[in-house]
Write a structure and sequence with these properties.
heterodimer; A: 319 residues; mainly alpha; 12 helices; B: 320 residues; flat
């Protein structure tokens, strides 16, 4: 029997690559990201390529209003058009930009808060640990939706004031995006903190940490060099499961009208628009079906990747 | 003893939560009367603020909300606060001027609870069999199909499935009513839309639990005694495998019973999910705090019940 010379991480990658749904999910996400980034560029390029190209670009401009309201999906508009005659295909891809961006950045915000909180609580232990985790418990028992709404309105008011003072008025839309990042990150870090704290608590008294401490290493050094690298696997796994949760949350807020402001779009606001067009006379199914389908497949892909990572690193992230 | 202590600790916890919610809303800019017909004269605004005691200090407002304390009138006589949380009075709503928070909760909660219970039953009814079947057939096609179904349920959010159900089953084929809440028939689509996500979660939790249990030694022992496979799984396995589902059921029920904004607004159901969101948008302070407290109390209470059930199912668990 030969020794397996690969590191645990290499073996985990091997297992991940063998996990078929996870690989399908990875490829789907890769293609989606490329499409989302490339589509605006394609439109820009094509608009410079003769009259036909200019028409194509104008037809697919996500913000251009037209007379062709509620066109069913077809050759000209692949996903049909919405109430203002805008091309739904372009809007879904532009919406994907926002949804994916909010998901990724929101997850990173929740990662930073959660890992810091959990690592400090677990590392300090005792009294500090007790109180920091009580705070998490209390935040758990508040309905997070109210928390987000209040947080976003507080931030919005403060920022409007600051922007007015600076004389920068065109920034509101970007600011809304920023609030979503912060707001969603701020309510999604609780589980991350719990998981990291548990891991750190068990790592803290291991022999190699003791050894480092005996050699005179400071707290910061021990945390950065010994503790955090060891919780990285768990953190990454949980991060991939946080992204879909935040995408979902963003779509919910946009559905409420608290998220992205029109004419910007996200999957949530597109679905909300579609749901607003339900009536018994005429069924505009494409307004719901396409944004919904893309949202669902993306969530599915992210969950597959998360499952694959979890199985590969054999982490129990649930609770 | 342990449970008694937990029960006693609930009171300061809820107080803390009410203080937190109360303070958080005061931090937010604007007041409940900002959307009145403008411009209201400063006179009117001052009178409104005085009527609802918004001109008092934060501490005094909070004490008044609790109903603990007194005020002196012009002659210096003491008047104890009337109503307040200690007497079970959650105060007047600032937006719906003729209603108290108690009224609004009393009107909406039964509806939300009914729908929540139905969705809970649906989630268990679909999720448990799905989880059991996928675990028992691990690695064969029922597992693949079932697991795919379960993860699909998790990935289809209510705000996609609810409008789609309406468009398909209600508007196009007219099998079910489009909206409202008047007959049992009206409950079918909202129940499915609300419960679908949770049935997926439950299926996955049970599958995981079953797989863990089937590896453990007491199952091998039971098999070795010559018990039939199905008896082993149902009598010994399920009892332990369902534990993760039990601990998930606490927060889940608290969530379901307090209503869902999306489902209630799509189906026009008069529950408390819509007021929960609207009140925080409207700065209807007392209504928000009341609903937050309701949610928190439900959550704490249900978690207590979960721990009790946990101990009944798994005698190995000891609480100190």
């Amino acid at each position: 029997m030969t020794d397996d010379l690969r590191s645990p991480n290499q073996r985990a990658w091997q297992r991940f690559r063998a996990h078929r749904p996870a690989m399908v999910g990875t490829w789907f996400l890769a293609v989606l990201v490329v499409a989302v980034l490339a589509w605006p560029v394609i439109l820009r390029l094509v608009s410079h390529a003769g009259a036909g190209g200019r028409d194509f670009a104008a037809l697919h401009d996500p913000d251009a209003l037209s007379e062709a309201q509620f066109t069913p999906p077809g050759g000209a508009h692949w996903f049909g058009t919405d109430v203002h005659g805008r091309d739904l295909f372009s809007r879904v891809l532009y919406g994907a930009q926002i949804s994916l961006l909010v998901g990724a950045v929101g997850a990173v915000v929740s990662l930073v808060i959660g890992v810091l909180w959990g690592a400090v609580a677990g590392y300090l232990g005792g009294w500090w640990d007790g109180w920091m985790m009580r705070v998490v418990d209390i935040l758990y028992s508040l309905p997070s939706i109210i928390f987000v709404i209040v947080l976003i309105t507080i931030l919005e008011d403060k920022l409007k004031f600051v922007l007015a003072q600076m004389g920068a008025t065109g920034m509101e839309k970007l600011a809304r995006l920023l609030f979503l990042f912060v707001g969603l990150g701020a309510v999604s870090w609780l589980t991350m903190a719990r998981i990291v704290r548990g891991q750190v608590l068990s790592l803290r008294n291991r022999a190699f940490v003791e050894a480092s401490r005996a050699l005179g290493a400071g707290h910061a050094h021990i945390l950065a060099r010994h503790i955090l690298p060891n919780v990285l696997g768990v953190v990454i796994v949980y991060l991939t499961l946080t992204v879909p949760a935040i995408i979902l949350y963003e779509s919910f807020l946009s559905y409420l009208g608290l998220g992205i402001q029109p004419p910007m779009a996200s999957w949530g606001s597109l679905i909300a628009e579609g749901a607003g067009q339900i009536n018994s006379l005429k069924i505009y199914w494409w307004l719901l079906a396409f944004p919904g389908a893309l949202l669902v497949t993306t969530l599915l892909a992210l969950n597959f990747v998360g499952d694959g990572l979890r199985d590969a690193w054999d982490v129990r992230a649930d609770k | 003893m342990y449970f008694l202590r937990r029960l006693v600790l609930t009171v300061p916890l809820l107080l803390l939560i009410s203080l937190l919610a109360f303070g958080l809303l005061r931090l937010a800019p604007g007041g409940p009367f900002d959307r009145e017909r403008k411009p209201a004269s400063p006179e009117i605004e001052r009178n409104l603020a005085r009527k609802y005691h918004l001109d008092e200090s934060f501490i005094l407002q909070y004490l008044r909300y609790l109903g603990v304390g007194y005020e002196r009138d012009a002659d210096g006589r003491r008047h104890w606060f009337e109503g307040g949380l200690v007497r079970g009075d959650l105060g007047p709503s600032y937006r719906y001027r003729n209603h108290t928070v108690n009224d609004i909760i009393a009107a909406g909660l039964p509806v939300s609870m009914t729908l929540g219970c139905l969705a809970f039953c649906f989630a268990l009814g679909v999720g448990l069999p799905l989880g059991f079947v996928t675990a028992v057939n691990r690695g064969r096609w029922p597992d693949y199909v079932g697991s795919l179904l379960a993860i699909l349920c998790i990935c289809i959010p209510g705000l996609v499935v609810a409008p789609l159900l309406v468009v398909g089953l209600a508007v196009k084929w007219r099998w079910f009513p489009v909206a409202l809440w008047t007959s049992p028939w009206h409950a079918v689509l909202p129940t499915i839309a609300l419960g679908l996500y949770f049935s997926g979660r439950i299926a996955r939790l049970l599958r995981e639990g079953m797989l863990n249990v089937m590896r453990s030694e007491f199952i091998t022992t039971a098999r070795a005694k010559g018990m039939g496979e199905s008896a082993v799984l149902l009598k010994h396995g399920l009892r332990i495998a369902i534990l993760p589902v039990v601990s998930y059921a606490g927060p889940l029920l608290a969530d379901l019973l307090t209503g869902s904004f999306v489902i209630e607004s799509v189906f026009q159901i008069p529950g408390i999910g819509v007021p929960m969101v609207n009140s925080s948008l409207n700065r209807d302070y007392t209504l928000v705090v009341g609903l937050v407290l309701l949610y928190a109390a439900l959550l704490v209470g249900l978690n207590l019940v979960v721990d009790l059930v946990y101990r009944l199912l798994d005698r190995r668990v000891k609480y100190d």
